[in-house]
Amino acid sequence: MALAKRIIPCLDVDKGRVVKGVNFVEIRDAGDPVEIARKYNEQGADEITFLDITASHESRDTTYDTVERMASQVFIPLTVGGGVRNVSHIRNLLNAGADKVGINTAAVYDPDFVGEAAARFGSQCIVVAIDAKRVSAPGEPERYEIFTHGGRKPTGLDAVQWARKMTDYGAGEILLTSMDRDGTRSGFDLGLTRAISDAVPVPVIASGGVGTLQHLVEGVVEGGADAVLAASIFHFGQFTVPEAKAFMHAQGIVVR
Amino acid sequence: MSSTAKQTLAIIDYGMGNLHSVAKAIEHVAPEVRVLVTDQQQVVRDADRVILPGVGAMRDCMAEIRRLGVDDWVREAVAEKPLLGICVGMQALMDHSEENDGVDGIKLLPSVVRRFAGDLKGEQGERLKVPHMGWNEVFKTQDHPLWHGITPGERFYFVHSYYVEAQGNGDMAGRCHYGVELAAAVARDNLFAVQFHPEKSHHAGLKLLKNFTRWQGA
Questions:
Q1: Which domains does chain B have, with CATH numbers?
Q2: What pTM was estimated for this model as a whole?
Q3: Which one from A12, A14, A52, A189 is the annotated catalytic residue?
Q4: Mean pLDDT of the A198-207 span
Q5: What is the ipTM of this complex?
């Protein structure tokens, strides 16, 4: 047997509530993050990812408090991201009970921040979150670019080169979100997932676009992802984590 | 100590890592135990059980362990009571680590801590990523009270780039396979140490922590 592929429910949290947008914009309320995390913990989720999508000055304290309550009741790994800009944010999140911290926009502005964070806290807890969009025209060789600020700002950075650079700087894992697919329920961008997964030595979490259980299988088998992240299929009761695992297991994927 | 006094468990805080999770997990499974996160030797001395956690780089961990004298606290503790090492807290108990161009450990156990090869391959020839991150199967290699109620092959959560060798390891208590055979757990006398994170390993991990709170040592 082998290391299990991970299924990671993702909580997008806005002002202390779990929400889920379509293409990062329209937002639906899905409930209390601690209650939802507990439910996934009981269902056998392999990890929880918590993204503070407000990421404002005021929301930060709410996030520390929520993470602390969550970590007292949920005994699986917890990754927290959203607006992480300096070493003290990371320390506070880890002290609150996060196991890994996701860095996104701040890495683009200051790649050395990732190096500093990895040196100080260890690569194992530094996840670099990459939001990528396809910029090549149909028929051209595939090319993906990094976007920041929840997918609103282009950077001109090539996604594959960027992912490699981030692991060179000490990222222990890549959380890869397709901005084209996020919230669409049309499946992962498998070309993007495969390109990044092949390019980096560290685990890759595929994110953005899950609408069916077959999409989870594709992310692992075709995309080469080590973990698959999904939000709305779980939040709105379409599928449970055990259903997802049973489906993946039946397709020959090793799950817990 | 009177028989009605609460059992105490000291988690050594030497500035490396997330001690909240370990403390909360123990409080969850053993509310009758008083958990003390501490950087004071006297608290470690007075405790019934001790946990040596650790995350991050071995050199930084060992530097803090030496600066605070935690290596001596650990040696003193294992002579008389149960001690559980977790992750880098397990690696720190070894003779030496290859990490950071070579770092000496506390040397309670003779193993060397090695880095996973860059071209690590799985059983089907597939490329394996490093860190070894996620849930993997653990098989006990010796009976021990800490394995009580845990099924062989149960999955625990790992996250590490360096490992304690399984081959020739007379202290190994549990094994795991990730491109190589590695020591998932070691045991000697009052000492038990795990490479995985029991505090993050849901039911199986909580069971192991509960077992630790009941273990009287060798």
A1: 8-214 (3.40.50.880)
A2: 0.95
A3: A12
A4: 98
A5: 0.93
